[in-house]
Write a sequence for this structure.
């Protein structure tokens, strides 16, 4: 059967490409063999439970996007805040995706720095999602602090700097690249002095 040829999480296009008929796909969903994570994104019901199901669904809907800001801070354990929406970034050259479920907020970042600090996280066993690194996440929260809240940005920076794998030099290098070195350096100095 075509279902055996598919990954644990897949799109309608992948299912149709494997030879499955649309009627069979939706029949498997209705029988409970598949769970629909988002419009056109399915996961096998017997697959291991994903750690980040919403991030997985959004990444398949918008494969060029990168998990950012508060959503990335949650992934890297830099905040206890629970975001109301999955926050993703796309290059300004791209058309922003419209994703209603799970609720998604799209940020548009400069193409010149879009790939800076890019890494991956395993959202489900064997399935990775693009996410910004802890350092890039801290810098993004600082540069978007008027929109996302300064307390959140400072709290994430404080938690990052107190972690064992903190690399303040990398944070400052990314801040320079993203044009916010002054405010980030001031905040780093203040947190280190505490």
């Amino acid at each position: 059967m075509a279902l055996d040829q598919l990954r644990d999480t897949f799109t309608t296009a992948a299912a149709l490409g494997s030879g499955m008929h649309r009627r069979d796909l939706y029949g498997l969903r209705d029988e409970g063999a598949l769970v629909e994570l988002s419009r056109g994104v399915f996961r096998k019901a017997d697959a291991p439970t994903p750690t980040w199901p919403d991030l997985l669904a959004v990444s398949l809907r918008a494969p060029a996007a990168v998990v950012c800001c508060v959503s990335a801070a949650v992934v890297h354990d830099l905040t206890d805040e629970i975001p109301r929406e999955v926050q993703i970034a796309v290059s300004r050259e791209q058309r922003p995706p419209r994703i209603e479920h799970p609720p998604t907020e799209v940020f548009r970042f400069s193409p010149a720095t879009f790939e800076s600090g890019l890494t991956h996280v395993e959202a489900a066993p064997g399935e990775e999602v693009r996410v910004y690194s802890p350092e890039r996440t801290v810098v993004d929260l600082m540069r978007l602090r008027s929109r996302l809240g300064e307390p959140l940005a400072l709290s994430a920076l404080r938690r990052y700097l107190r972690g064992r794998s903190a690399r303040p030099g990398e944070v400052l290098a990314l801040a320079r690249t993203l044009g916010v070195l002054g405010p980030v350096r001031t905040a780093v100095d203040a947190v280190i002095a505490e």
